[in-house]
Amino acid sequence: MINPMPTTRLTETNRPHASPAVFAELDAGLRAGAACISPKFLYDALGSRLFEAICELPEYYPTRTEASIFARHGHEMARAIGPGSTLIDLGAGNCAKAAKLFPLLHPAQYVAIDISADFLRESIERLQQRFSHIEMTGLGLDFSNSLDLPGIVRPERRLFFYPGSSIGNFTPEQAGAFLRRARAQCDNDGGLLIGIDLVKDSATLDAAYDDALGVTAAFNLNLLRHVNHLAAADFDVRQWRHRGYYNEAQGRVEMHLEAREALTVSWHGGTRAFVAGQRIHTENSYKYRQSAAVGLLEQSGFHAAHVWTDPAGWFAVIHARAIPI
Ligand code: AVJ
Description:
Blueprint: H1 20-31, H2 45-54, H3 61-81, E1 86-90, H4 96-105, E2 109-114, H5 117-130, E3 135-140, E4 158-162, H6 172-184, E5 191-197, H7 202-208, H8 215-231, E6 240-247, E7 252-259, E8 263-267, E9 270-274, E10 279-286, H9 290-298, E11 302-309, E12 315-322
Parallel strand pairs: 1-2, 1-4, 2-3, 4-5
Antiparallel strand pairs: 5-12, 6-7, 7-10, 8-9, 11-12
Helix pairs in contact: 2-8, 3-4
Bound molecules: N,N,N-trimethyl-histidine.
């Protein structure tokens, strides 16, 4: 049951803290037949730290596996890319992955982009002290819907750095559209260095997204606290449980928040009842076969020049060059 706008006065606690566009997106997801909240809302300050903790978990193989590929093949990547690039880090977070590449890649400029701007500022200030010769800029942007880079970003030799299989949050169609936008934001000398998680057995995937310590559960549940702040909602975190598992038919891991009991949630201008077991879909994490990953790039204006994988074939790092137009 969804009620119309109430006529209550806005106070500090019932006032949404999101921009009108972000609020409208949250509101629409909460009202949808199958309720959903975008995974980008997982990353408030605490969520970003919980994600860092996930990356340390024994079950969460992507970060470690990708790091092993960079450690083993970083020199070869740097040789293929060459020094002096404009390194554009999409979803930079703590900037640690890019920082490890600086001594190999020697970029002329480093542009860190993340939706969590505060987290970013701290990370960049620390980095600039260590690498004073690299021009650095941080941009607090949600690049999921548009990727218009401001004039301070050098146009020459743009290299989009998109590690961690973040591309998996998009459907393959959305991923293609996103990559085409990246292609449109670079000249013929542009490129992409992307990490993509590969299809593997479902037990490994299930464990990676529903770990024994419950860190992923905390990460997913924290989204409700963030939405409480953004939309002036009254989610009670204790009434919800985490679900994370591989959906083999769809080729993706799904995360949901499931109501433990019948409950009602209210937010600025809306209210909704959930029955026990009813879910809010919070994330998709698509897994690709190597051939499909290469195909996706080729259809989106990039030629996959190099593919590096770990020995088990769990994860791929791909250097793709802009197809000249
Ligand atoms: C940051 C989107 C790559 O999908 O593996 C980790 C996020 N979600 N555990 C992923 C995530 C649950 C992660 N990405």
